[in-house]
From TrEMBL:
The protein's name: Multifunctional fusion protein
Residues annotated as domain 3-dehydroquinate synthase N-terminal: 228-339
Alphabetized UniProt keyword annotations: Amino-acid biosynthesis, Aromatic amino acid biosynthesis, ATP-binding, Cobalt, Cytoplasm, Kinase, Lyase, Magnesium, Metal-binding, Multifunctional enzyme, NAD, Nucleotide-binding, Transferase, Zinc
Originating organism: Glycomyces albidus
Catalytic activity: 7-phospho-2-dehydro-3-deoxy-D-arabino-heptonate = 3-dehydroquinate + phosphate; shikimate + ATP = 3-phosphoshikimate + ADP + H(+)
Gene Ontology terms, MF aspect: 3-dehydroquinate synthase activity; ATP binding; magnesium ion binding; shikimate kinase activity
All residue ranges annotated as the 3-dehydroquinate synthase C-terminal domain in the record: 342-482
Gene: aroK
Length: 518
C-alpha cells in the first residue's frame, strides 16, 4: 500500500470516511490535524486564538510534510492545508481523494462538530466562501473526486477503494488499446465497460459463483445478466463447453453489441474469450480474473482457446478483451497451492524480463504467498507490465511474443500427459527448470540453481517422472512455436535476455530431461 491523502472542505467527512477507507484497506489511518494538536499540546481553536492563523498554517505545512514523508496508509488533511503551494507540490506525487459535499450538508455537519475556529461566526456564509475559494485547489491536487452528500462512510469507502486502482496498465494493442485495472474492488468498475450491451453473459465456475452474482447485480436497469456456470478448471476448457455457451447465447438472442464477462481463473477467461471470439465472429469480452495466474497472464493479451485431444490450447483465437478488472480482493479465497501456481508465471516474467520480480520473491517468499499483502500487489503489477508491453507489440506471436512461452514447451507436454490434472503453473515451474537446463547445456547461461531455489521456496515442483521422455518428445513436436519439422525453444542468453532457439539438438533435449529427473 502506498499513501492515499484525503482532502476536502470542513464537513466533507475526511476523518470519518478516511478511517472507514483505512479499515477497509487494512492500512493505518493518520490525521494531520491530530498531529498538529499533539505537537502544539493544545486544540486547534486555541492555536488560532493564542498564536493566530499564520502560525497554525506554518505548523500545518510542517505536519503535512512530515506525514507525507512517513505515513503508509490513509492520511486526512485539514480543509485549508491545500492553501500552501508547497503542500500542493508535495501532493503531486501521491494519490489524492477529494471529498465534496453540498453546502447545506456541510453546514449541518459543522453544527454538530463545533471545534472549527474559522466557522465560529456566520458558518453558512463562511463555509460557502471557503468552499468556493478552495475548490480549484482541491481539484488541482485530486486524482479522484467523490460527492459525499447523503451517503454513509462505509459505502463511500467501498467506492473510493474501487477507484483506487493500484495502477492502470494500458495494453496498447494496435487495434483497440484496453485498460487493465489493478486494485481493490475494481470489479465494481464493470459498468464503465458495458458499451451498448443490453445483455451480459457472465461465465464462471462454482468457485466464483458469488462474484458472478455480484457482477450481475452491478448492471444498471435495462441490462440483463445471464449467469453460466462452467465445469471447473481444465474440464471447462473444451469445445463441448464452448458449444453449450453458444447455444445459451443463441437462446438469449445475444447480439453483436452484447458483452461476455469471464469471472474466474485462467481456464474461465480462456474459455470466455474463445466463446466471445467466435460468437457472431466476435463480441466484446471483459475479464475479471480471480486467480493470480489469470490476473498476471491468462486474462491479459488476447489469447483465448480450448484444449482438444491433439493438445493444450491448440484451438483458439486472438481476441483481446475490452478491459481486464484485476480485483486483488478476489485472491483472498484462492487456495495457497493455486496462488503458488500463479507465482510460477510471475517468476517466468522475472526470468524473461524483470529480474526485480525474482529479487522480491527471493527476499521474502512468504510475503509473495500472502494474497492480501503489498508484495503480491507489486508482483501482479510488474508481471502485467511485462506481459502488456510484449503483447502490445506482437499480438499474434509473429516474433517477440514467443518469449512469454518460456518453460511452456515442456509444461504443455506434461499437462497433456497428465490429462490436464496438473495445475498449469506447476507444469510451468517444471518447464522452466527444463528450460534452465537447456540454457546451460547449450552454453548460454546457467540459472538452474536459481530457478530451482526460487520455485522451491514457493512450494512449486521442480522435477518430473523419469522414463517418460519418448511420450514428452512426441507432444513437444506439435508445439505451436515449431516451424515445420523444426522445434523452437524459448531460452535465455542471460537473465532477462530471451531468445527463440531453433538449433537445440535431440541429444541436448534428452540430456536436459535426464538432468531434470536425476
Ligand atoms: N490466455 C493466456 O494467455 C494464458 C496464459 C496463462 C495461462 N493460461 C491458461 O490458464 C489456465 C490456468 O489458469 P489458472 O491457474 O487460473 O487455473 P484455473 O482457472 O483452473 O483455476 C485454478 C483453480 O482455482 C479456482 N479458483 C479460481 N479463482 C478462485 C478464487 N478466487 N477463489 C477460490 N478458487 C478459485 C478454480 O476454480 C480452479 O479450481 C490454463 O488453462 C492455462 O493454459 C492462458
Ligand atoms: O500469452 C502468451 O503468449 C503466452 O505464451 C503466455 C503463457 O504463459 C500461457 O500459458 C499461454 O496460454 C500459452 O499460450 P500457447 O500459445 O502456448 O498455448
Amino acid at each position: 500500500m502506498s499513501l492515499v491523502v484525503i482532502v476536502g472542505p470542513p464537513g466533507s467527512g475526511k476523518t470519518t470516511i478516511g478511517r472507514a477507507l483505512a479499515e477497509s484497506l487494512g492500512v493505518p489511518f493518520r490525521d494531520a490535524d491530530a498531529d498538529i494538536v499533539a505537537a502544539a499540546g493544545k486544540p486547534i481553536a486555541d492555536i488560532f486564538v493564542d498564536d493566530g492563523e499564520e502560525h497554525f498554517r506554518a505548523l500545518e505545512r510542517e505536519a503535512v510534510r512530515r506525514a507525507v514523508a512517513e505515513h503508509d496508509g490513509v492520511l486526512a488533511l485539514g480543509g485549508g492545508a491545500v492553501l500552501a503551494e508547497s503542500t500542493r507540490k508535495l501532493l503531486a506525487d501521491v494519490t489524492v481523494v477529494h471529498l465534496r459535499v453540498d453546502l447545506a450538508e456541510a453546514v449541518r455537519r459543522n453544527e454538530i462538530d463545533k471545534g472549527r475556529p474559522l466557522l465560529a461566526v456566520n458558518p453558512r456564509a463562511t463555509l460557502r466562501r471557503l468552499m468556493d475559494e478552495r475548490l480549484p485547489l482541491y481539484r488541482e491536487v485530486a486524482d479522484i473526486e467523490i460527492d459525499t452528500t447523503g451517503r454513509d462512510a462505509a459505502d463511500l469507502a467501498a467506492e473510493i477503494r474501487a477507484k483506487l486502482a493500484v495502477r492502470t496498465v494500458v495494453v496498447n494493442d494496435a487495434e483497440a488499446p484496453y485498460p487493465v485495472l489493478i486494485g481493490h474492488g475494481t470489479v465494481d468498475r464493470l459498468p464503465e465497460f458495458l458499451g451498448k450491451a443490453a445483455r451480459v453473459a457472465v461465465l464462471h465456475t462454482a468457485s466464483t459463483a458469488a462474484l458472478a452474482e455480484r457482477v450481475g447485480s452491478l448492471l444498471p436497469d435495462g441490462v440483463e445478466a445471464t449467469l453460466m456456470e462452467l465445469p471447473d478448471a481444465e474440464d471447462g476448457k473444451t469445445v463441448a463447453v464452448a458449444e453449450q455457451c453458444w447455444e445459451a447465447l443463441g437462446a438469449e438472442g445475444f447480439t453483436r453489441t452484447d458483452l461476455v464477462v469471464g469471472v474466474g481463473g485462467g481456464a474461465v477467461t480462456d474459455l470466455a474469450g474463445f466463446v466471445a471470439a467466435c460468437w457472431l465472429r466476435g463480441v466484446a469480452v471483459v475479464h475479471v480474473p480471480t486467480s493470480l495466474l489469470g490476473a498476471v497472464d491468462a486474462a491479459v493479451g488476447g489469447k483465448t482457446g480450448v484444449n482438444t485431444a491433439a493438445g493444450k490450447n491448440l484451438v483458439g483465437a486472438f481476441h483481446p478483451p475490452r478491459a481486464v478488472l484485476v480485483d486483488l480482493d478476489t485472491f483472498a479465497t484462492l487456495p495457497r497451492r493455486d496462488l503458488a501456481a500463479g507465482l510460477a508465471e510471475v517468476v517466468k516474467a522475472g526470468f524473461i524480463a524483470d529480474p526485480v520480480i525474482l529479487d522480491l520473491v527471493e527476499a521474502d517468499p512468504e510475503a509473495a504467498l500472502d494474497a492480501s499483502g503489498p508484495v503480491v500487489a507489486e508482483l501482479v503489477e510488474r508481471a502485467i507490465a511485462v506481459k502488456a508491453e510484449v503483447v502490445a507489440s506482437d499480438l499474434k506471436e509473429g516474433g517477440l511474443r514467443a518469449i512469454l512461452n518460456y518453460g511452456h514447451t515442456f509444461a504443455h507436454a506434461i499437462e497433456k500427459l497428465e490429462h490436464y490434472r496438473w495445475r498449469h503453473g506447476d507444469a510451468v515451474a517444471v518447464g522452466m527448470v527444463y528450460a534452465a537446463h537447456l540454457n546451460a547445456i547449450t552454453g548460454r547461461v546457467d540459472l538452474v540453481a536459481r530457478t530451482r531455489s526460487v520455485l522451491e521456496s514457493l512450494g512449486l515442483p521442480t522435477t518430473y517422472e523419469p522414463g517418460r521422455w519418448d511420450d514428452l518428445l512426441k507432444v513437444m513436436k506439435i508445439d505451436k512455436k515449431n516451424v515445420g519439422a523444426t522445434q523452437r525453444f524459448v531460452l535465455l542468453d542471460a537473465l532477462a535476455k530471451p531468445v527463440v532457439a531453433d538449433d537445440v539438438t535431440a541429444e541436448q533435449q534428452r540430456e536436459a530431461y535426464e538432468r531434470l529427473t536425476a
